[in-house]
């Protein structure tokens, strides 16, 4: 049975224009309209220019942005900054206090896309600071791979990691990843296979799963329908749809 009144937070959205496509979510108004059409209450979104460009190369970064990252451009949208840990004086702010002072509780890193090392000494200072202050880190599994996420979780047990976009063919790898560390949460949006989310929730607990779609780069409607139709207890569905994201965004450790 589809749940029509489920409160949903999409933890993986993109706000702004995207290369080679005309999307309705290229503006805040378009994103809000999309959320409303899907019955999604709120979302965490990365700015498309940070994702596809250089996060340190345009006004609107953490230091120069007009909108506070903790609040976002609208109460229903929380901005997720993309961080690029680099040595002092070489680009993006080298001091993790920039994120801490912004109030952001979730950051995203794209080490392959932006050409830096996830486990360098410079990056490690960021992950230590994030772990200390309860800031979660989102990583795209299609970019960094399952092994990199597992390795980072093993080296930083206190760091909450949201593993995005695992894919519907990767249930066993998702299970292995969840078994690696209790600080890892897996996004459900691309687990579009019958019983897949239920299987993971039964094995590791619904508190290890979080809803996100990757929209508009990926389909939003299918994952949202699947979420509302999960064959799980109501409390478990509510955790996946809203509760786990709320806990992360409030800076609470697993």
Automatic annotation (TrEMBL):
It holds the Pfam family Amidohydro_2. InterPro entries: Amidohydro-rel (IPR006680), Metal_Hydrolase (IPR032466). One of its GO terms (molecular function) is hydrolase activity. This is Amidohydrolase-related domain-containing protein. Residues 103-249 form the Amidohydrolase-related domain.
């Amino acid at each position: 049975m589809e749940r029509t009144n489920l409160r949903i937070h999409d933890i993986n959205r993109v706000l702004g224009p995207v290369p080679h496509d005309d999307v309705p979510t290229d503006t805040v108004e378009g994103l809000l309209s999309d959320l409303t059409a899907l019955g999604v209450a709120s979302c965490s979104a990365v700015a498309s220019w940070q994702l596809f460009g250089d996060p340190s190369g345009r006004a609107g970064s953490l230091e120069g942005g007009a909108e506070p990252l903790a609040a976002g451009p609208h109460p229903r949208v929380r901005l997720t900054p993309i961080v690029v840990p680099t040595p002092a004086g070489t680009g993006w702010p080298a001091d993790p206090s920039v994120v801490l002072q912004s109030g952001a509780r979730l950051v995203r890193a794209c080490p392959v896309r932006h050409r830096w090392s996830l486990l360098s000494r410079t990056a490690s200072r960021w992950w230590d600071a994030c772990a200390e202050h309860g800031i979660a880190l989102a990583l795209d599994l299609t970019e960094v791979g399952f092994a990199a996420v597992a390795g980072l979780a093993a080296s930083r047990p206190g760091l909450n990691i949201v593993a995005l976009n695992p894919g519907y063919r990767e249930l066993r790898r998702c299970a292995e990843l969840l078994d690696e560390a209790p600080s890892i949460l897996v996004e459900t949006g691309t687990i579009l296979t019958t019983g897949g989310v239920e299987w993971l929730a039964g094995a590791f607990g619904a508190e290890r799963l979080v809803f996100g779609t990757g929209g508009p780069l990926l389909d939003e409607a299918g994952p949202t329908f699947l979420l509302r139709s999960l064959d799980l207890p109501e409390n478990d569905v509510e955790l996946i749809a809203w509760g786990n994201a709320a806990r992360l965004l409030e800076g609470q450790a697993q």
